[in-house]
Amino acid sequence: MASTAILLGRYSSRSADLPHDRRNNRVPVNGGSTIVLDRSDLFSVSPICPGLALCGALSIYTDKETVAALRPTCLINCAGELPDTPLPDTVHRYHKVPVADTPVTDLGPHMDTVTDLIHQEYISGGTTIIHCAAGVSRSAAFCIAYLIKYRGMTMNNAYRHIAKCRPCINPNTGFISQLIEFEEKYREE
Length: 189
Description:
Tyr_Pase_dom
């Protein structure tokens, strides 16, 4: 039954065990279908869960096959140093989060806005691609925050899940500390 859940994309929206079958490289996308990943590296778009994918800025252009399969409806650019991202035709919502990748950068003012935007897009049937320069630190931190807030995961489980989907993630130490505080905030609620 577990493979059926993976292939059909059935799961609780707050499930701590998001479906992801690395043996077959199948990852569910919003709407219950799946796509097959050929790789998960620095230059690919990495689906995280239905409705959410993570990448570096250039991957939107170098991994056109995955972008076409995901049919993103929202794009979030977390790299303040980069210009606005040219949007794929399917994108109707664009949001820029001008943050730097430094341990002293405060993601706090943006955490709820970004996670709420991802979730709103998901519940309306859309898919968000979130990126920073490399898809390693800033955008990965926001993905972890999303899994904490809307999928009920611990910070450690969210980190591990995303690292399975995109092994190159490495949020800086300041972001990790902020994610621990973010997790505490949602555990108390």
